[in-house]
Design brief:
Elements (H helix, E strand, L loop, with lengths): L1 E5 L2 E3 L5 E8 L7 E7 L5 E7 L6 E3 L7 E6 L4 E6 L8 E9 L2 E4 L3 E5 L2
Parallel strand pairs: 2-11
Antiparallel strand pairs: 1-3, 3-8, 4-5, 4-9, 5-6, 7-8, 9-10, 9-11
């Protein structure tokens, strides 16, 4: 099983980034996907969720209205479009896949929001 995040980087406040998480080794469209982040010196913070079919999404209050999660089951990829980025969005962003007792994590991608 592999989950590989990409798309992170350095962006100025107010800017945008699109994260991708490419999955392999499991039946992607049967797994719910989430994005979770960890800011420097802090614990894990759940960011967003999407169900296997893509019809149901949910967001943390801290990102609601600025971030959009989506998935392309034909490409086995989940995305996180991040707009109006703030310095407090600086973190390592991880994607995970869950179905029942199965939980898989990616290695993370760094997002830094700074002028």
């Amino acid at each position: 099983v592999y989950l590989v995040e990409s798309g992170g980087g350095l962006v100025q406040p107010g800017g945008s980034l699109r994260l991708s998480c490419a999955a392999s080794g499991f039946t992607f469209n049967t797994y719910a996907m989430s994005w979770v982040r960890q800011a420097p010196g802090k614990g894990l913070e759940w960011v967003s969720f999407i169900n296997g079919g893509g019809a149901t999404t949910n967001y943390a209050d801290s990102v609601k209205g600025r971030f959009t999660i989506s998935r392309d089951n034909a490409k086995n990829t989940v995305y996180l479009q991040m707009n109006s980025l703030k310095p407090e969005d600086t973190a390592v962003y991880y994607c995970n896949a869950v179905r029942g007792f199965n939980l898989y994590w990616g290695q993370g991608t760094q997002v830094t929001v700074s002028s």
